[in-house]
């Protein structure tokens, strides 16, 4: 049977009867959950109004694409995956000047990040939401866009989407794939749905050998190993220069950055910052929450602990010319001097590299509590050593390699993280050595993009075809 074929019962090739029954029940569950999906979007839109936009796309309702040029579809669910996709998208565009990229997301912040990253390629990169994985939406999505190849980033394997691609003859690849032991256990519980989806993939490219081994245990052997695409994301010169300019306005204060923090981590860090007041020696704590809807919540946490606060706009104009909304009386918020306050709140999106460039050491969010950790590679790429908590299962291999290289240190909790960070900024010589180790670590692990393109080459549109 070829990629478009199915059996007499209408099942995609390779799907066993028990798997087909499980997927039928899965489709029924999605149909029953539609009101819940609507409620979820409305609930999220209270904090992020962008969740009210493009609803038709969530259910696979798109106008038919009239452009006949070859289209490669890349799915990057949110911010982290979108940033990781940047070097891959650039390489795909370079493969063929006629190829266009459809970049899909699941969150407004992912979509906004994609728009920022690929603004210069707006004529060749279009964006949309990937529809929910119901019975019919994936098929409508494929019929409207007609991609030649689908590329999923990291962990996004969906049963109905995989089946629809198989029926439509669209090769589907999973790249930069990662699978923690926790995710493996979850996948095994839903193996009757996940295993046929994995088997149907045309290509799997894993971040590391451990990821490939776990993917094999879940039913898909033979994954290529290419490394982590995040190592190939080059810090934008403009962002680094912006961060250096911010630092110049801090009157020589060292900066401890809490990067991409998650819910409840900020409170732990602020309490530890207060406990270690005698050791701070003028250091500034900068906190950049992972999710923008939490900016005001974190600002309230900072104020409630009696710290003086500066915000992003106190550092200077934003590159896009925007600033925070005026206060209730129509006046802009009062400015604070970042060189004199206790804590800086990084309440902006798309400026993570600038925050790293202004910092001496970074405590990586998501690792102090069991969220799995956020991207530590960006900090190292700017020469900023990192401090990790106990929970780094989302970046297990990168974390282990960074610790081995001396670019990262693992600690038990938020108090130890702050104590370690203050120790690093107090020792100028060690800080410089740690910065050098971080840069060297980031440089030595580049090259995943080229290896991924090599693995995808048999499925890419041919130039001129």
Strand order of the largest sheet: 3-2-1-4-5-6-7
Name the shape in a single word.
globular
CATH C-level class of the largest domain = Alpha Beta
Number of domains: 2
The biggest beta sheet is recorded as: 7 strands, parallel
Helical content (DSSP H or I, runs of 4+) = 40-55%
Our measurement of the CA-to-CA distance between the termini, rounded to an integer number of angstroms, reads 25 Å
Mean pLDDT: 92
Helical/strand content category: alpha/beta
Descriptive notes:
- The chain has 465 residues and is α/β, with parallel strands linked by helices.
- The chain has helices at 17-32, 34-45, 55-58, 79-95, 108-117, 137-145, 159-168, 181-189, 191-199, 209-217, 237-248, 265-275, 295-304, 352-357, 377-381, 396-405, 414-426, 428-444, 448-456, and strands spanning 71-75, 100-105, 125-129, 149-153, 172-177, 203-206, 224-225, 255-261, 284-289, 309-311, 343-345, 361-364, 386-388, 408-410.
- The chain has 2 domains: 17-32 and 48-227 and 447-459, Rossmann fold (3-Layer(aba) Sandwich), CATH 3.40.50; 237-318 and 336-444, 3-Layer(aba) Sandwich (Rossmann fold), CATH 3.40.50.
- 43% of the residues lie in helices and 13% in strands.
- Strand 8 (255-261), helix 12 and strand 9 (284-289) form a beta-alpha-beta unit.
- The protein is globular.
- Mean pLDDT is 92; it is low at 1-11 and 326-332.
